[in-house]
Write a structure and sequence with these properties.
- This protein is mainly α and 128 residues long.
- The protein contains six helices and no strands.
């Protein structure tokens, strides 16, 4: 789905904004209210779908923002950042669970998405 969207748009920044905002809203909904299990499953599935759908647009923006001859280094930096975040998040989320604050897992995940959105928009080159 993300590849089809990326192929059909020049405004990859808007794809990222929409995807991250929808995903963050879905996670905030799960954390902020009681929902039936099907609604929780649908909300989390929607968040995952949106997170996956933005990846091709993110990759296009990363490639456009990279200096000539440095695309590999930039993708390596981005990938390393995601790996570090993927290693730290379970520790943070485990600590949150130990504190009995389960809804904050969803708030933290939504907050991380909004921070990623801000980073993507700040790094956006003028040519996109």
């Amino acid at each position: 789905m993300g590849g089809l969207i990326a192929d059909r748009t020049k405004r990859h920044d808007l794809v990222i904004v929409a995807g991250f905002c929808i995903a963050a809203a879905a996670l905030m909904l799960v954390g902020s209210t009681w929902l039936p299990i099907l609604a929780v499953s649908a909300s989390i599935a929607l968040a995952g779908l949106m997170n996956g759908a933005i990846r091709p647009s993110r990759d296009i923006m990363v490639r456009a923002a990279a200096p000539a001859g440095s695309v590999g280094k930039v993708f390596g930096f981005v990938t390393s950042g995601m790996n570090v975040g993927g290693a730290i998040a379970p520790l943070l989320f485990g600590w949150i669970l130990d504190q009995g604050q389960t809804p904050w897992i969803f708030y933290a995940a939504a907050g991380a998405m909004l921070l990623a959105l801000l980073a993507a928009l700040l790094a956006r080159p003028k040519a996109i």
